[in-house]
Amino acid sequence: MQSASAPRRSRGRRSAGRRAAVPTQRVRIRLPRSRRRPLLPLQHRIGVSLAVIGLVCGFSIVPTDDALASTLLVAPSTTLAPGDGPSGSATAAAAAPPPAQQLLVDATIAAPVVNRENLSATDGLQTLARVGTNEAWAKLVLMFGGWPQTDANVTVMLRWMRQENGPPDWWNRNNPLNNGYGSGGGAGLGSYPDLITAAEYCAKNLQRGYPAIVAGLEAGTSADATAAAIWASPWATSHYGNGTHWSTRPVEIVQAPASAWGL
Predict the structure, then answer these.
(1) Where are the alpha helices (DSSP H) in the chain?
(2) Among 63, 93, 117, 180, which residue has the least CB neighbours within 10 Å?
(3) What is the pTM of this model?
(4) Percentages helix, strand, coil for the chain, rounded to the nearest 5?
(5) What is the pLDDT of residue 54?
């Protein structure tokens, strides 16, 4: 018999393959989890986007310095005279002088050409009355009629006056051309209160019924052409002999009395 204390032998291959199981420990490694940032609400994200867009647009449309300067309105400065205002002369001394004004004209703009040869001065009523000559009365008739006071017009008027009354007494009855209109004498034998009134009625009578004479005076270029219109008109029943009773020699200039002019 075998002793009870003898060790047991392993039985077969299974016994040999079996070993005492060594307990193993499982180690779990915990990695730190990444912290995710919480998402903003949708309305907040839209608000932030609009704010960014607004800033970008605002910086893109900022006006330049030149644009700002062109839109500024500068109030006109006022310079006080010495003694004006609360500070008197001190304010006037401190006030800056106003800037000089400049007018820039395009070089392509040319100044108009003025023909000074056609410029002339016309005497007025009071000036002609003070002169008081037959030449002044002829100019006064032309002035009342609105006709030019050319040499041709003055000459034909002086010749006409000479044929009616003559130079020494050309102011006879204050009616140098023996005008019947407004003088109270249909045959030209009436009178006027003064030579100024006579000149005004003479111009009116020519304008109301003597178109050929008016046309010659309006042209003012030929004393002979206007004289021919006078001969052909019914002003004088003799028609001045159709020019045979019409002298063209120079007319003497004679001054009438101041009383005849109403002065």
Answers:
(1) 12-17, 42-60, 65-71, 89-94, 125-131, 134-145, 151-164, 195-209, 211-219, 223-232
(2) 117
(3) 0.55
(4) 45, 0, 50
(5) 75
